[in-house]
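General statements about sequence and structure are easier to judge against a single worked case. When preparing material for the folding task, we compiled for one chain both its residues and its backbone structure tokens. The amino acid sequence and the backbone structure tokens for this protein are reproduced below:
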Amino acid sequence: MFSSPDEVLEEFAQVKFIVNRSVATAVFIAIKLQRPLLVEGPAGVGKTELARVLAQTTGSDLIRMQCYEGLDESKALYEWNYQKQLLRIYTDKSQNKNWEEIKHTVYSQEFLLERPLLKALMAQQRTVLLIDEVDKSDEEFESFLLEILSDYQISIPELSTITAVHPPMVVLTSNNFRDFGDALKRRCIHLYLDYPSYEQELEILNLKVPGIQQRLAEKIVAYIQAIRQLKLKKAPSIAETLNWAQALLELGEEDIDNDVIKDTAGVFLKYRGDIEQVTAQDAETLLK
């Protein structure tokens, strides 16, 4: 496990995930204090990737739970395998067993369908639990989640109270779809991931797209950084910067001009209104 924020920086850099020291410090503190890490920020800045990289660099299994409106305890924690239970009940009754004997059999771990939260609690090895886009879940689920994350344990009435042998490293991500309650925020270490600086994004581009000419890489990053200042429905993410760089490399382009941008804007912009707004502006003016 990491011994310092500097080691977090070094280990992340080795797998080509570039972060600044404040990010590395938040990750280090969350691990040392065994507190969930709540990562907020615009889409496409690497929130989900942070959890994947954390699992990779710590040699941990990654367990992911995708949140959505209407998500409830049964989908997040556990369910009983009712079909298998009914089959066992039918078999046991055919052997003249009474209900007291049967219920101890059917309500056992053999018939338990582990969902992500329970799977993370019951894991026999170190895990990273990614609770992705938690802001899309309901407030009731947020309260339930807070209870689980407070003690890393859950009570299953038919079995017992299950406490994590190895408390998972928990990463919650949010695109700011809604605000969270103070209770959840108090429980977590907060980290806001924003778009990277020019220097940081250029470093990422050079790492992820080897072989690109430096002059072209610098212009790509400068242009993307400039259009992020516009009022777009969806600003280009880091992934879209990389996609555009790879596309220009495949096309054999060595420079950026208005024609190139009109031809390839659909690679880094996802809405018609954004494309029209950006392509209506002179590239050289934006690059100044």
Q: What stands out?
A: DSSP finds 15 helices and nine strands in the chain. The longest helix spans residues 214-227. The radius of gyration is 24 Å. The mean pLDDT is 89.
